[in-house]
Amino acid sequence: MTPHFENADSYDRFMGRFSTPLAKLFVDGIAPPRDALALDVGCGPGALTRELIEALGPGQVSAVDPSEPFVSAARSRFPGTDIRIAWAESLPYPDDTFDLTLSQLVIHFIADPVAAIREMARVTRPGGRIAANVWDFQGNRGPLGIFQQAALDLDPEASVYEITRGTGEGDLLEMFTGAGLADITTGELTVRITFPTFADWWDPFTLGIGPAGAYVASLDPDRRAALERHARELLPAIPFTIAATAWTVTGHAPR
């Protein structure tokens, strides 16, 4: 991840409004048994970690992230849960440790995602489940579509796109297949967030998080005001709802 993502509170306001309900749908769909040991790979400030703890209890969940600020935030939020600084490609656990290893909105950031998935399988017991999700940024169904349209309408050279590599239909399936996982299934999850005011939607874009936030921060006051006005024009009347869809894939560690 880039440093633009590493302020936990700002990240929660910006992307957490979508990633938190996505994590609940993700865990509900997997429905892990209460005695499962679970690992959250690339936990960030802990949206998925929180849902796993709700389902399993703090002592049944571990989490890793390469960002020290995110790990510090997650540790303060979830005492009693093992949360470590680590990269997905080199997990600090023995073979066959977990029943379930999950990764939310992270795989497409990893330089070698197949290697990371193999590592997730290594720490998962034979036959245990490995699952991941990513926003459909290639299909423009992620949570930032209207903002990106507004910015590009005014500035066709605007650098507002998230990483799209690995976020298209079939990309996660190809990665999981390449990593040698078995019994792979795919699907979609869609969250719908209602914003009671324009400010509720707009203000998190001014926090400097991710490419969108960095772009807003780079604008002079007149250009920022023009972008805000155009975004208002593109959005429905308040209150309005934004839908965001993520691809999901689940496989099993080789036996």
UniProtKB/TrEMBL annotation:
Q: Which UniProt keywords are listed?
A: Methyltransferase, Transferase
Per the record, the domain of life is: Bacteria
The UniProt record lists the Methyltransferase type domain at 39-131
Which CDD domains does this one have?
A: AdoMet_MTases (cd02440)
**Gene3D superfamilies hit by this protein:** Vaccinia Virus protein VP39
For this UniProt entry, the molecular function terms from Gene Ontology, in alphabetical order, are: S-adenosylmethionine-dependent methyltransferase activity
> What biological processes does GO assign it?
methylation
Which InterPro entries does the record cross-reference, listed alphabetically? Methyltransf_11 (IPR013216), Methyltransf_Superfamily (IPR050508), SAM-dependent_MTases_sf (IPR029063)
Q: Name one Pfam family in it.
A: Methyltransf_11
Q: What is this protein called?
A: SAM-dependent methyltransferase
The scientific name of the source species is Subtercola boreus
